[in-house]
């Protein structure tokens, strides 16, 4: 009942906690964050207001410049005012960029720490009831991806939203101030700018989901094939698998082309802007003619309405990011608000002043939360006296480890009591209770830090002398001292740099450091070879002296020195006594287990190899191959020792333009039409600006008839731009979509087909797992498409825009054009460099965050040890240490954000001031007309902004370059064992005689561990041969070598007297049938899986095969 109550209480407390959102994150801000957000918001509001301020100044300037009485003093005054505005806007932008970026870093760091602390606080039952892999992925995702989502919103999106909303509000207010009649008519038309974009955006999102689902099917084929690559190779199913993948890609191709068409229509709706200009142009002219409105007021009011409408659209784009941030925050706060049933942070409860170490279990009933209804312990009773060593034995699942888990209070029993020195442990302070115990588990758990830090998990404030004393007691001091860095040696992630025996002895030292009253040993030596086991067992025997010890041992010989042994059967103590007492009952469970294990151990001794201090499980004898040496024969074969050189060659390969063009060549017509569309769309911005400048000049004409006729011409031009914008975007994105989707499909097919020719050792590498290859096929091909289609599209648009803009400007007034053109590169460079710098800094932050994500992943995997040793605070300190570099990079990013915005905004505003000042000078000197001045102004300012935005977008395409390199590395890589070697021997029939001649072999992933040492083995044709031996002795390796999955270091393997490397491997494998330990079934019907071995199998053959396999009856 106690367990049920604690679980219900945890659920209640969790449900009572407030749900998390972005608002919850902001509520946790301290005074510094409040100040930063206030200053950042002020900067965003000021930045957003700048458009309206500049427009009001330009309105006055246009009205003045249109007359004949403008003076140099007035020109200088306008220029100086615009310069002041530029400084003000730049300063506001600095506050906006710096303050929001800084507070985002501070708040997300605090949030990550809170989340990790909440994860570490949870009880063991929580991790059991949630699926391990999915929960681990969720923990890492929450601490990395989701917090970065929140950081992105806080640092940029909120500021952008405030700025754009302010631009919209102040823009419409300025429009009402400048020309309220025009504003009343034109503002409702803004809905035309927003609604189509929202509709198409939703449709694009739906199509995007369908594409993901469609590719999910294809990705599933890849995942299955790669994770079961040995099965695919052994049944020569590469061609069939590649064909299945190709067919699965077709729906994604069709949907992708449809998405391209919809994207063109969505972006084409921007043309509505020009239709609104046509409305404003016509109605503005009527106001000038009939109401005597000033041309500058009417025109700038129109600009305010258009720019405000675009800003409103820009602000709405951020809404989806806010939704994503709310979802991310909800996931994080769900954990932060969760109060576990057994709370490691709970400091309530009493302590015992002088612990003796007497443990008693009374009538314990228990079931695991993940397996309700299945009692593990049923009326379990056991008493361990102070200082006694008690061994627990029993079959797997009998409840041995459960006893330790309950004593550590990882779980609460359903009924019964557990007593320490006669006191119920539920009444004791939890952290104090666990401090009285030292736990050593079957799997030695180490963290990716130094040996010293790992031992200090046992007692954080221990001195170096205490650490050394614990290491000596654990029989670990000697090997630690032989290491170059001694106690400061890093053990690697999960302790991969240490041997199993070394890791276990470090784990024992950790347990002994706290000088526990109770030592708990849960199969602490079962995963070790006999020599390592002996060293560790000696350490354990020494450690158990003078303290209560409970041992669960795999080898019963380890329990000989135990005072008492309890045999657990059906959740109860079935037999109890010393080794000598229990062995007397020859029919007893314990005696039978001892006899069986003696037989096993005698067999194992014959197979056991000598252990070396460096962790190798194999001896190195004179006259044989030594670890790290390669026999001469390996130089002539494709051995794994050539991997480094080969990898280097792969890394050096880089794709060239010719190769890239050849990949897109089949779709040259679509490419050409896409370029035509992009070229046409690129001509619109300078053409529109030309017409805007001309329209402004028309408003100042004295002849009303001329105003009407000229306005009509430009309004029709704006309507034409609207239609042309829609058409060119549809053409551009539809045809680039065809080219891009077919390129994506071609890349995926080519890469997958190439991968299916690679040797097995390539798949053994960590970065070539099924998940990694699926991700590579999913993302790299898309990034290559983006690199080709988007870059080509953007560059074509930018070149056509820039060319026409420069030509028109030089034709209108070469003097003003040259000055403005000379300043444009500075504006473009400032925007581009800011975007590039921010992206580079973001990558550095991501890299820095990966270390903390790894620690979070480790903490999740090792939660039981962290809980047992009460090491939550130590893990948090390690986490804080990993955040130091991340904080530095984030701090730099906040400065870059502020300075980048300052420079880009200042130069953009300053360009307006310079053009107005120099243009005014030329106007005063009669060297330029009013019309040409503002035509050049609009052409170069708007085109410069378009080019700058295009440049910043192409910066994001740098990812495509690395993806392209990754693709070509695979396509250009030569397999070390070509399965379709055209010179290989193909035979219709083999007899089946197999012979191993002096075969030496190591797995490429473990080159120091020699598996086969000069193996000689001959298997006659048609003979039934069994291979036996201990785990790791090389049984499965022999089968893998016969299949040609790996090549040998030296020696040869012959089939019918011919070296298998002389065969065509696919032809050879077609004569071999493999049934592995883990049965691999592929998605599909039972019939498909049986016929996998023979694609053209008849129904009769399938039934016959299933009958032989004793499967036909249950299938029916």
UniProtKB/TrEMBL annotation:
<dbReference type="GO" id="GO:0140359">
    <property type="term" value="F:ABC-type transporter activity"/>
</dbReference>
<dbReference type="GO" id="GO:0016887">
    <property type="term" value="F:ATP hydrolysis activity"/>
</dbReference>
<keyword id="KW-0547">Nucleotide-binding</keyword>
<keyword id="KW-0812">Transmembrane</keyword>
<feature type="transmembrane region" description="Helical">
    <location>
        <begin position="260"/>
        <end position="279"/>
    </location>
</feature>
<feature type="domain" description="ABC transporter">
    <location>
        <begin position="359"/>
        <end position="595"/>
    </location>
</feature>
<feature type="transmembrane region" description="Helical">
    <location>
        <begin position="672"/>
        <end position="699"/>
    </location>
</feature>
<feature type="transmembrane region" description="Helical">
    <location>
        <begin position="35"/>
        <end position="58"/>
    </location>
</feature>
<comment type="similarity">
    <text>Belongs to the ABC transporter superfamily. ABCB family. Multidrug resistance exporter (TC 3.A.1.201) subfamily.</text>
</comment>
<keyword id="KW-0472">Membrane</keyword>
<dbReference type="InterPro" id="IPR003439">
    <property type="entry name" value="ABC_transporter-like_ATP-bd"/>
</dbReference>
<feature type="transmembrane region" description="Helical">
    <location>
        <begin position="299"/>
        <end position="323"/>
    </location>
</feature>
<keyword id="KW-1133">Transmembrane helix</keyword>
<dbReference type="InterPro" id="IPR011527">
    <property type="entry name" value="ABC1_TM_dom"/>
</dbReference>
<feature type="transmembrane region" description="Helical">
    <location>
        <begin position="711"/>
        <end position="736"/>
    </location>
</feature>
<feature type="transmembrane region" description="Helical">
    <location>
        <begin position="78"/>
        <end position="101"/>
    </location>
</feature>
<feature type="transmembrane region" description="Helical">
    <location>
        <begin position="816"/>
        <end position="833"/>
    </location>
</feature>
<feature type="domain" description="ABC transmembrane type-1">
    <location>
        <begin position="35"/>
        <end position="324"/>
    </location>
</feature>
<protein>
    <submittedName>
        <fullName>Uncharacterized protein</fullName>
    </submittedName>
</protein>
<feature type="transmembrane region" description="Helical">
    <location>
        <begin position="895"/>
        <end position="920"/>
    </location>
</feature>
<dbReference type="InterPro" id="IPR036640">
    <property type="entry name" value="ABC1_TM_sf"/>
</dbReference>
<keyword id="KW-0067">ATP-binding</keyword>
<dbReference type="Pfam" id="PF00005">
    <property type="entry name" value="ABC_tran"/>
</dbReference>
<keyword id="KW-0813">Transport</keyword>
<dbReference type="Pfam" id="PF00664">
    <property type="entry name" value="ABC_membrane"/>
</dbReference>
<dbReference type="GO" id="GO:0016020">
    <property type="term" value="C:membrane"/>
</dbReference>
<dbReference type="InterPro" id="IPR027417">
    <property type="entry name" value="P-loop_NTPase"/>
</dbReference>
<keyword id="KW-0325">Glycoprotein</keyword>
<dbReference type="GO" id="GO:0005524">
    <property type="term" value="F:ATP binding"/>
</dbReference>
<feature type="domain" description="ABC transmembrane type-1">
    <location>
        <begin position="672"/>
        <end position="959"/>
    </location>
</feature>
<keyword id="KW-0677">Repeat</keyword>
<dbReference type="InterPro" id="IPR003593">
    <property type="entry name" value="AAA+_ATPase"/>
</dbReference>
<feature type="transmembrane region" description="Helical">
    <location>
        <begin position="183"/>
        <end position="201"/>
    </location>
</feature>
């Amino acid at each position: 009942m106690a367990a049920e109550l604690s679980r219900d209480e945890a659920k209640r407390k969790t449900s009572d906690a407030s749900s998390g959102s972005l608002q919850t994150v902001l509520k946790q801000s301290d005074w510094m964050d409040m100040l930063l957000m206030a200053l950042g918001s002020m900067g965003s509001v000021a930045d957003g207001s700048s458009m309206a301020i500049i427009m009001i100044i330009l309105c006055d300037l246009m009205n003045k410049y249109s007359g004949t009485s403008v003076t140099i003093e007035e020109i200088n005054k306008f220029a100086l005012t615009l310069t002041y505005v530029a400084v003000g806007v730049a300063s506001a932008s600095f506050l906006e960029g710096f303050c929001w970026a800084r507070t985002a870093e501070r708040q997300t760091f605090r949030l990550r720490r809170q989340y990790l602390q909440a994860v570490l606080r949870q009880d063991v039952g929580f991790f059991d009831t949630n699926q391990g892999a999915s929960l681990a992925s969720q923990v890492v995702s929450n601490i990395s991806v989701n917090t970065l989502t929140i950081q992105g919103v806080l640092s940029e999106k909120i500021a952008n939203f405030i700025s754009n909303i302010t631009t919209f509000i102040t823009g419409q207010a300025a429009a009402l101030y400048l020309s309220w009649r025009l504003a009343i008519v034109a503002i409702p038309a803004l809905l035309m700018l927003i609604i189509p974009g929202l509709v198409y955006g939703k449709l694009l999102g739906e199509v995007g989901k369908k594409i993901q689902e469609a590719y999910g099917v294809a990705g599933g084929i890849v995942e299955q094939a790669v994770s079961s690559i040995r099965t695919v190779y052994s049944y020569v199913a590469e061609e069939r698998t590649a064909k299945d993948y190709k067919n699965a890609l077709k729906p994604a191709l069709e949907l992708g082309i449809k998405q391209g068409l919809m994207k063109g229509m969505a972006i084409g709706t921007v043309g509505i802007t020009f239709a609104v200009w046509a409305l404003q142009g016509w109605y503005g002219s009527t106001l000038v003619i009939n109401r005597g409105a000033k041309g500058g007021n009417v025109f700038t009011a129109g600009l305010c309405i258009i720019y405000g409408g675009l800003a409103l659209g820009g602000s709405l784009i951020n809404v989806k990011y806010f939704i994503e941030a709310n979802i991310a925050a909800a996931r994080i706060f769900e954990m932060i608000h969760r109060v576990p049933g057994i709370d490691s942070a709970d400091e309530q409860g009493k302590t015992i002043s002088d612990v003796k170490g007497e443990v008693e279990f009374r009538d314990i009933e228990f079931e695991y939360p993940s397996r309700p209804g299945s009692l593990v312990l049923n009326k379990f009773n056991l008493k361990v006296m102070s200082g006694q060593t008690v061994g627990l034995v029993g079959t797997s699942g009998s409840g041995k480890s459960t006893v330790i888990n309950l004593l550590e209070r990882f779980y609460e029993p359903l009924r019964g009591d557990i007593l320490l020195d006669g006191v119920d442990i539920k009444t004791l302070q939890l952290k104090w209770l666990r401090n009285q115990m030292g736990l050593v588990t079957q799997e030695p758990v180490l963290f990716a830090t130094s040996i010293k830090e790992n031992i200090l998990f046992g007692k954080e404030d221990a001195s170096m002398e205490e650490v050394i004393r614990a290491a000596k007691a654990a029989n670990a001091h000697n090997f630690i001292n032989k290491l170059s860095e001694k106690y400061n040696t890093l053990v690697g992630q999960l302790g991969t740099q240490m041997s199993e025996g070394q890791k276990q002895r470090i784990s024992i030292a950790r347990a002994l450091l706290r000088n526990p009253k109770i030592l708990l040993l849960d199969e602490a030596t079962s995963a070790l070879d006999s020599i390592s086991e002996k060293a560790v067992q000696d350490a354990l025997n020494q450690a158990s002296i003078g303290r209560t010890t409970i041992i669960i041992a795999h080898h019963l010989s380890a329990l000989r020195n135990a005072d008492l042994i309890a045999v657990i059967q059906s959740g109860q103590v079935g037999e109890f006594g010393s080794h000598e007492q229990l062995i007397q009952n020859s029919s007893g469970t314990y005696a039978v287990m001892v006899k069986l294990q003696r037989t096993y151990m005698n067999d194992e001794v014959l197979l056991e190899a000598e252990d070396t201090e460096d962790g190798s499980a194999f001896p190195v004898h004179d006259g044989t191959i030594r670890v790290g040496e390669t026999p001469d024969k390996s130089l002539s074969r494709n051995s794994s020792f050539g991997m480094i050189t080969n990898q280097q060659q792969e890394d050096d390969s880089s794709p060239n333009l010719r190769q890239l063009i050849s990949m897109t060549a089949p779709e040259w017509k679509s490419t050409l039409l896409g370029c035509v569309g992009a070229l046409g769309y690129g001509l619109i911005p300078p053409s529109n600006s030309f017409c805007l400048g001309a329209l402004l000049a028309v408003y100042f004409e004295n002849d009303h008839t001329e105003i009407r006729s000229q306005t009509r011409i430009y309004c029709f031009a704006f309507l034409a731009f609207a239609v042309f914008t829609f058409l060119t975007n549809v053409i551009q994105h539809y045809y680039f979509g065809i080219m891009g989707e077919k390129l994506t499909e071609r890349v995926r097919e080519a890469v997958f087909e190439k991968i299916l020719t690679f040797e097995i050792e390539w798949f053994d590498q960590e970065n070539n797992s099924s998940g990694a290859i699926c991700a590579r096929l999913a993302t790299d091909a898309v990034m290559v498409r983006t690199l080709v289609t988007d870059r080509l599209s953007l560059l074509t648009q930018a070149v056509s825009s820039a060319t026409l803009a420069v030509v028109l400007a030089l034709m209108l007034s070469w003097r003003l054009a040259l000055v403005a053109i000379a300043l444009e590169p500075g504006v473009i460079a400032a925007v581009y460099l800011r975007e590039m710098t921010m992206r580079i800094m973001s990558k550095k932050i991501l890299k820095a965050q990966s270390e903390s994500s790894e620690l979070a992943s480790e903490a999740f995997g090792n939660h039981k040890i962290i809980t047992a040793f009460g090491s939550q605070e130590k893990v948090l300190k390690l986490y804080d240490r990993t955040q130091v570099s991340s904080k530095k990079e984030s701090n730099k990013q906040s400065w870059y954000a502020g300075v980048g915005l300052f420079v880009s905004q200042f130069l953009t505003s300053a360009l307006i001031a310079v053009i107005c000042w120099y243009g005014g000078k030329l106007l005063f000197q009669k060297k330029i007309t009013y019309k040409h001045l503002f035509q050049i102004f609009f052409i170069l300012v708007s085109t410069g902004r378009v080019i700058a935005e295009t440049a910043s977008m192409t910066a994001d395409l740098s990812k495509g370059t690395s993806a392209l390199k990754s693709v070509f590395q695979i396509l250009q890589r030569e397999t070390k064992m070509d399965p379709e070697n055209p010179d290989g021997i193909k035979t219709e029939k083999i007899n089946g005689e197999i012979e191993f001649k002096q075969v030496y072999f190591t797995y490429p992933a473990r080159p120091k561990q020699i598996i086969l040492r000069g193996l000689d083995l001959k298997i006659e044709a048609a003979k039934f041969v069994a291979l036996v031996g201990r785990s790791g002795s090389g049984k499965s390796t022999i089968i893998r070598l016969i299949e040609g999955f790996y090549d040998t270091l030296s020696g040869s393997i012959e089939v019918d007297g011919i070296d298998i490397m002389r065969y065509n491997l696919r032809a050879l494998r077609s004569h071999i049938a493999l049934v592995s330990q883990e049965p691999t079934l592929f998605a599909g019907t039972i019939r498909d899986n049986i016929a996998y071995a023979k694609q053209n199998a008849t129904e009769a053959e399938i039934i016959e095969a299933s009958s032989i396999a004793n499967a036909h009856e249950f299938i029916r």
